[in-house]
Write a structure and sequence with these properties.
88 residues, mainly alpha
Amino acid sequence: MPDKDTIIDTVQDGQAARLIRHNVEDELMAREEDIITELVNAYRADVLTNDKLRGSIGELAGIRRFREGLESKIRRGVMASEAQLGVD
């Protein structure tokens, strides 16, 4: 079992990640919507290039990876908190 300092650090990291997620979630969702709208508009205008498509997919993947990292930290923090409290 990890020592108390490690558990406290994990819980604090989870809480910080939760605050960050709360502060940026609306902006991330808006950016995803903008990217998709740009792609659809470029497709409809018949100006969608391979570079634009690849760049947009990369940007969406980056946003998703950022979100998954936050969620992972939040889960680890909750699990550490529960372990500290003895909750199953």
